[in-house]
Amino acid sequence: MVVRHVLNVIGNPQLEYSIIENGTITGVGNVTNIQTWIDTLRTPKVTYGEGKGVIITDNGQRATWTGYDIGQLQNNGSIVYKGITIFNSDATEDIAFLNNLVGLHITIVEGDIQATKIWKWQ
């Protein structure tokens, strides 16, 4: 589910996206990722995004995150975002490994469908 709001139309327009994603984390299982992004439209094909969210496991463990990325409009109309995600968690079980983890991410958005992949930055 994606909910959009226009925040600013003066200068570089800003859009807010609230998104609920269901996904999996390797070794953890199913999770829900509730997030909000503010995208600043820099040019007709480039967007700067800042986001924050919370990941919740099926058994109620939580991790929060903050992300920053640059999105580029592709010729097929999709947008590819590349950026960094910084995690925090006080969980003591499955997702404890996310505490202070820094990840590199790629998100591909096609209409209301998006897919994100995150790699641990080592």
Structural notes for this entry:
- A hairpin with a 3-residue loop joins strand 2 (14-25) and strand 3 (29-43).
- This protein has one domain.
- It has no helices and 8 strands.
- The protein is mostly beta strands.
- It is 0% helix and 70% strand.
- The model has no long low-confidence stretch (mean pLDDT 93).
- Strands 1-2-3-4-5-6-7-8 form an 8-stranded antiparallel beta sheet, with no helix packed on it.
Secondary structure layout:
Layout: E1 2-8, E2 14-25, E3 29-43, E4 46-57, E5 62-73, E6 79-88, E7 102-110, E8 113-120
Antiparallel strand pairs: 1-2, 2-3, 3-4, 4-5, 5-6, 6-7, 7-8
Radius of gyration: 15 Å
* Overall structural domain count: 1
H/E element sequence: EEEEEEEE
Q: Output mean pLDDT.
A: 93
Uncertain spans, ≥5 residues at pLDDT below 50? none
Work out the helicity level: under 10%
Q: Tell me the span between the first and last alpha carbons.
A: 32 Å
Helix/strand-derived class? mainly beta
Biggest sheet features = 8 strands, antiparallel
The rough form would be described as elongated
The total of beta strands comes to 8
Discrete helix count: 0
Strand content range = over 45%
Largest sheet strand order: 1-2-3-4-5-6-7-8
